[in-house]
Design goal:
- The protein is an all-alpha fold.
- Helix content is 66%, strand content 0%.
- The protein has a single domain, classed as lambda repressor-like DNA-binding domains (434 Repressor (Amino-terminal Domain), Orthogonal Bundle), CATH 1.10.260.
- The longest helix has 18 residues.
- The protein is elongated, with a radius of gyration of 16 Å.
Length: 122
């Protein structure tokens, strides 16, 4: 059982690496949606995360990946837990080792692709 889970997790991680541009875009989209929902301007947001307006915009459009520290700064600025941003991309098997975490929340393309890929592979 453990070997099969390791294989599944490795496959999901390889998929994410292969599609990192899509991943960056979708993470940026989630960040932008949260920022807008909290009525925070790009200018204020960029100041809160100690970066330029241009760089904040690049993050939201997925043209720049995030360092861990920048991700933490963003979560703090938006007052959200990291899992709110990441839940659609984490493989989770506590209740069911055959699905990705929160399969029913398939509103993000890469998580749909991972789910479909995993269903077809295993």
């Amino acid at each position: 059982m453990l070997e099969k889970n390791i294989e599944k997790i490795t496959t999901v991680n390889q998929y994410l690496i292969k599609h990192k541009d899509n991943f960056n875009y979708e993470i940026g989209t989630i960040i932008k949606e949260i920022r807008i929902s909290k009525d925070i301007s790009v200018e204020t947001f960029s100041e809160m995360i100690s970066t330029s307006n241009s760089y904040a915009s690049q993050i939201e459009h997925g043209s720049n990946g995030l360092s861990l520290i920048k991700f933490i700064l963003i979560c703090n600025a938006l007052n959200v837990k990291p899992e709110k941003v990441l839940n659609n991309f984490i493989y989770f098997n506590e209740d069911n080792d055959d699905i990705l975490y929160k399969e029913l929340q398939q509103n993000k393309n890469i998580s749909k692709n991972i789910i479909n890929y995993m269903k077809n592979k295993f």
